[in-house]
Write a structure and sequence with these properties.
- By secondary structure, the chain is α/β, with parallel strands linked by helices.
- 25% of the residues lie in helices and 35% in strands.
- The strands form two sheets. It has a seven-stranded mixed beta sheet, sandwiched between helices.
- Bound molecules: adenosine monophosphate.
- The site of adenosine monophosphate has 17 residues, from strand 2, strand 7 and helix 4.
Amino acid sequence: MIDFKAHIHDVPDFPKKGIVFKDITPLLADAKTFAAAVDRLAEPFVGKGVQIVAGIESRGFLLATPVAYRLGAGVVPIRKKGKLPRAVKSASYALEYGTDSIEAHADAFSKGAKVLLIDDVLATGGTAAAAVQLIEAIGGALVGAAFLIELSFLDGRKKLSGRDVRSLVSY
Ligand code: AMP
């Protein structure tokens, strides 16, 4: 059994006071643990016809890309606003103060494409819920959402109710 938590470092008060940042860089840098994480993220979706894996900027990219390769799917970046060069669709989500938005190219995949969403951490679920909205606005059919880490005390899963939500470790 791979102990994923042993490779995730807690960084208190980053990026601001009161937040315990889950640093996954030691996990990514450990070949065996990284490979196991990619396999375990992909595993529930093998044979489900996933055509696109969408990753959320920026740590989501590091996981979505190998998962897409593992599933024989394409990879699509969901980016912070203003980064993509062509016509985009956006979705907003609430921050502690105000809102932010994420974007994907409006033609990132064809209508009806089966899409798996990947990110490193499911916290309050605001970002993932906005990403699901975005995927569906482009015409994708969400197959599920998978995260390395779920901060279950923040109840982010509630914002994704009715969806196939997976996580490898939970705090
Ligand atoms: P949320 O919208 O609250 O679910 O936050 C999810 C996004 O913020 C993900 O893209 C994570 O990378 C990042 N995030 C939130 N909380 C943490 C945390 N404690 N440690 C690392 N990343 C986090």
